[in-house]
Design a protein that fits this description.
This protein is an alpha/beta fold and 482 residues long. The protein has helices at 16-20, 30-33, 75-89, 111-121, 136-143, 171-177, 196-199, 213-222, 242-249, 288-292, 343-351, 399-404, 425-441, 460-470, and strands at 41-44, 51-55, 66-70, 94-97, 102-107, 130-132, 182-187, 204-208, 226-227, 255-258, 269-272, 279-282, 301-302, 329-333, 340-341, 356-361, 390-391, 415-420, 446-450, 473-475, 480-481.
């Protein structure tokens, strides 16, 4: 990834082959990928209409167990039951919403089911999966070695004292952040019940308890832990709506549970408390500063790189391969102090053929459009940006737009779409993936993104990590003007 401007590839959109070349050697076999398409159904579920869902309370923790009571007359409950049955009885994964992004879930204890995830996503087989649980009781069951079969005549002669298999280092994190966007790294026990495909050959696995009640209800109803990466085609931006999932995986999976747009918009933070000092393997919904406020985590370090780490064994999802990339080329302009996208950044791409340009702006860039005719700059949701997505006019009053393009190339030959993601890090995170997808659907050749300072807000590091993995070019220091 370059640190300066490079337009040698011009403004042409990437081919499918270009986007997947890094993973070709390790994706599922062609036989697995050549399965005939299936009908993909989207099933709406309002979890409040299921009947009752929630945690039980106990003297140790309110997260010990999760209870689901279903209303037999509720269509929403019927959809939930159908998805749970599908997870138990088939090897085809189910897409479902979490608070972070939509996940693609399968029974984490069955190899054939887990392989279905890799096949549907065309995901590299050496990229480990996160296991989603609905209770601490379920998590503990994954950490206990499976004992050999005992004779039927065996009777225990004493009560074994409780020894929590969940490492004590994680107790303050679980208490503060679970259920929520945090994944913890745990040791795989001997003879683990998890399918080996979940860990991709590693001696550890990542686990998290989502805060989405629909996700928790699905896990509980299925009766199994769910291995679940994001429900997108591999390397594409993560999905934050059911429509995003259907766009990527239509014909590859049978069921998508639609619970509405996701609240966080970027994936969970992944932490390793087994190392000394503890470390962050992937930034996400929980910040470094928040982690350092917890006992035992005061010296937490960053152990990830924002670029691809190809050639290394990934300790967590998202560490090795290029991710989050739309078909259009992404040009990331790092935060640098100016208040507009500088013409010198755009001109080389227009000169080499880009005729459809997308702009994602955040805190400081001025709108390219005339504020008198395009007034909406409200922070978007992570669903549709149609209220904020606006082709920029090429009328003479749009001075800034005309400055972007080189003379003698006439401005009316170039169309520009811009999206305002908002100014707070949480708003930007919530709308980032949706914004990239929205611009891609308009067939833009190149997307210019206004970066933010990594230290701005809890989600800022996660936003910039995703953008640096998606970007083909980073422009530092010279990409803005005031």
């Amino acid at each position: 990834m370059a640190n300066g401007l490079s337009a040698e590839d011009g403004g042409h959109r990437k081919s499918e082959g270009e986007r997947t070349v890094m993973a070709e050697a390790s994706v599922p076999s062609s036989a697995e990928n050549s399965q005939p398409p299936m009908k993909t159904r989207v099933l709406p579920v309002d979890v409040s209409k299921v009947s009752h869902v929630g945690f039980t309370s106990s003297s140790k923790s309110s997260l010990e167990d999760f209870i689901v009571t279903l209303d037999d007359k509720s269509p929403d409950a019927a959809h939930l039951q159908e998805a749970a049955r599908h997870l138990r009885e088939t090897n085809i994964p189910v897409a479902f919403p979490t608070e972070t992004v939509y996940g693609l879930g399968a029974d984490a204890t069955r190899s054939a089911a887990v392989r279905g995830i890799y096949t549907a996503k065309r995901r590299p087989l050496d990229n480990p999966l996160i296991v989603h649980v609905c209770s601490l009781r379920q998590l503990r069951s994954l950490l206990q070695p499976q004992p050999p079969a005992l004779p039927s005549s065996y009777t225990p002669d004493q009560t074994t004292p409780f020894n929590d298999p969940i490492s004590a280092i994680y107790a303050p994190l679980i208490q503060r952040f679970w259920p929520g966007p945090l994944t913890i790294l745990l040791p795989s026990p001997p003879n683990s019940i998890l399918a080996p495909e979940v860990t991709a050959g590693l001696p550890t696995f990542g686990a998290r308890m989502p805060s989405s009640l629909l996700a928790l209800a699905l896990i509980k109803s299925a009766g199994v832990p769910l291995a679940a990466p994001s429900a997108n085609a591999s390397t594409r931006p993560s999905p934050t709506t059911a429509q995003h999932v259907k766009h990527d995986l239509d014909g590859r999976i049978a069921l998508i549970l639609d619970g509405g747009p996701c609240a966080v918009g970027v994936e969970s933070t992944v932490v390793d408390g087994l190392s000394d000092p503890p470390s962050i393997l992937r930034p996400g919904g929980i910040s470094l500063e928040q982690l350092r406020e917890c006992p035992g985590w005061e010296k937490t370090i960053v152990a990830y790189k924002d670029g691809s780490e190809a050639g290394k064994v990934p300790r967590a999802p998202g560490m090795k391969y290029k991710h989050y990339s739309p078909k259009a080329r992404v040009i990331l302009v790092e935060a640098g102090g100016g208040d507009s996208l500088q013409p010198s950044v755009v001109r080389p791409y227009v000169a080499q053929g880009a005729r459809r340009i997308g702009i994602l702006r955040t805190k400081r860039w001025k709108a390219c459009s005339d504020p008198a005719t395009h007034a909406s700059d409200a922070p978007p949701t992570n669903g549709s940006h149609k209220a904020l997505l606006k082709p920029v006019p090429t009328a003479p009053h749009s001075t800034h737009l005309r400055d972007l393009f080189p003379s003698p190339s006439p401005a009316d030959r170039v169309r520009v779409w811009e999206i305002a993601l908002g100014e707070s890090a949480s708003d930007i995170a919530r709308g980032l993936f949706s914004g990239l997808r929205e611009l891609d659907q308009h067939g833009v050749d190149v997307i210019f993104v206004e970066g933010i300072d990594d230290a701005e807000g809890d989600a800022a590091a996660a936003v910039m990590n995703r953008l640096r993995k998606a970007a083909e070019v980073e422009v530092r220091g010279c990409g803005v003007g005031g």
